[in-house]
Each structure stands twice: as C-alpha cells, then as structure tokens.
C-alpha cells in the first residue's frame, strides 16, 4: 500500500470556466473490494462541460474525469477476478453489482453506492453523484472493482477505441435502444457531439436505412458524412423542415436527443432547453420512439427561467400522446453493453475512435477544456494521457 503522503497530478475544478492541474493525495485502497488503477487514458466529456460551466452543484476541488482506462496497480484483498497488471476500462457510473437495479442490468441506477440518490459516477460531480473522485489524474480508486472494471486485452492496441467504452459508445448505443429502433428503420439524431456521433455510428452498425444527424459545428458535421450519415446544419434552416424536405414530407421512424438541457437555438448562442424534444416530437412518425441520452437535470443553477431552474422542461406532451410516441431517457447502463461493444472492437467490426480529435498530455487539460467548451478548432473528443 502506498504511503499516505504520496501525491499525484490531477485535473481539479476551481470555479466556472477554470480547471487546474494540482498535486493532490494519491488514492489508497479503502475497502477490500477496491483496486487502484494507474490511468493511461482518460477523456473529457460533454458531461464535464455542464460542471465546467458552473451549471451543476459541483464543488471547487472536485477531481474531474469519469471515462477512464488504465492498468491495475493495487488490488484489495476481496477482489477475485483482477490482478496487478491487468488492463481495464471502467464504466463512468459506479455501481455495486448487488442491489436490485444492478442485478437487473440497470447499473446506472444502483441504489447502494450513493444512498438517497440513484446512481453515482467517478467524479464528485455534484452531491447527486456520490463521493468518488475522478480519473483525470495519475491514479484512480475503483470501488466494487470486480463488478466495475472490464478486462481488456493486454498491450496498447485499440487504446483510443477501448476508452470510449467508459461512456460514449455504450451511451450512444443505448440512445438508439431507448428509441425502440429496429434494423431497417430511419432515425434522426440531434447533436453531433461525441454522444450523437456514437448514436449515429451505432445506428449504422445496427442496420439503419437512413441516419440524419443535426448540428451546426462544421467539423462535427464532416464526421457525420465520414460514417455515411446525412448531416443537417440547423444554423442554416429549421432542422425538422430540412429532414422532412429530404424525405418528401415523411417523418423518420426514430429519434435521439444527444444534446440535453443546454440545447441552443439556430444562432448557436441562445439556450432553449426544450428545442430538441420539441423537434423530435415533430419529426418522428406516429407510434415511433424517442431516446434521450442527452442530460436533463433536476436543478440548474444557470437556467434562464425559474421553471428550467427546477428542471421543468416545457414540451408538447399532447402531441406526443396524440402520435403515440414512446420516450426513454436516462443515464447509460454501461455494464449492459460494454463487454459486447469491446468484442465488436476486438473483432474489427467497430472502430468508434473516428470520433477522437485530440490526444494530449494531462498537463494540457486546462486549454483543452476551454477549446472543447467553445467547440472550436475541431475539438470533438479529447483524450488525456497522465
Ligand atoms: N445519458 C448518459 O449516460 C450520458 C452520458 C454521456 C453524456 N451524456 C450527455 O449527452 C449530451 C451530449 O454529450 P456530448 O459529449 O456529445 O456533448 P457536446 O456538448 O460535445 O455535444 C452536443 C452537441 O449538440 C449540438 N447542439 C446544441 N444545440 C442543438 C440543437 N438545438 N440541435 C442540434 N444540435 C445541437 C452542439 O453544437 C454540440 O455539438 C450531454 O448532455 C451529455 O451530458 C449523457
Ligand atoms: Zn462522459
Ligand atoms: Zn447496485
């Protein structure tokens, strides 16, 4: 066990729009079921930006980073499936593997790890996400390690693909699942950030006939084209009108909201939290379905109006009812998918790393946050290497 005074470098949240590299305490084994992982790759996520922008109750001093891959460095006495030197990737959500929701595969809704709330993540994201530090750091403590760590082939192959198993590949895949998608159907995905691109890629892998992806960021729309999907630029004209026009007035079968509560109007600046839900209700055919991996929060300190501040989102429920649409939302149950998506990567059938735009040392995290937040210079998916 390392000496308590040992320290390491980590990305620490200071205040809105400011993170810094700090020397912090290195994590220790706290429970027999823990492991300590030496992090080799960790990503910046769109979800980190909600915290970075001060749009959550994340506290100063929080270590960011919930998408983590690395090598097992220490093993608690209760761990049976893992050993020192194993290469592992962790789901962004921490789960116990033993409660009712975990047993039913709903690992994003573990009722044990964060009493009083459902789900926790490895980041002190805000009170609702539990007491776990993040992995944008040299080392990470992983609780309930046998359940939470997925073993990868040793070596360094597919590092950029495997790290996406922590969150966005399963999250994009689940977004398509939540929409009720079946092979051969058409689908419209709002948001061409990492999650939207992974939903689009999943729909392609799963045999969609047509995949439309809406965004306004040039580099992201280019990636949409790269994977054989149809880019829709909502800064040019209303996205729903554009899709309906391309389809001769016919709605799509399924829709995915990969944007969430910080959705923007066509100007790209003004927020309109209901923009995407409203558009999806318009563009999906009667009895079709909508999947919502995009995050909505029960309280938003930076909301433009008092209703949105309490997580009330105004959208045409009457239209949804009339069309008989299904709607599924929530955090991704990464454990349900990551093993199988890993195997698609190993067999060469999936290569989600097309989404990766930058590989940087951990020390460059502060600048990377700033650029990713502004969605400039092609910053789409940033991987940090401690
Ligand atoms: N459900 C989960 O478990 C889970 C996991 C990871 C991320 N997320 C959430 O998914 C969302 C997307 O994550 P990301 O990493 O791709 O983020 P991102 O912020 O990089 O991407 C969002 C994209 O949406 C675009 N956008 C904004 N307004 C739009 C609109 N009205 N129409 C179409 N596009 C619009 C933006 O230009 C941006 O490219 C975030 O809310 C994130 O928190 C959820
Ligand atoms: Zn993430
Ligand atoms: Zn559980």
UniProtKB/TrEMBL annotation:
Keyword Zinc recorded: yes
Q: Which Gene3D superfamilies match?
A: Medium-chain alcohol dehydrogenases, catalytic domain (3.90.180.10), NAD(P)-binding Rossmann-like Domain (3.40.50.720)
Q: Which GO terms describe its molecular function?
A: metal ion binding
Cofactor(s), by name = Zn(2+)
What's this protein's name? GroES-like protein
Query: Hey, which family's this protein in?
Result: Belongs to the zinc-containing alcohol dehydrogenase family.
- Which keywords describe this protein according to UniProt? Metal-binding, NAD, Zinc
UniProt-listed Pfam families: ADH_N, ADH_zinc_N
* Residue ranges of every copy of the Alcohol dehydrogenase-like N-terminal domain listed in the record: 32-144
Q: Which organism is it from?
A: Pleurotus eryngii
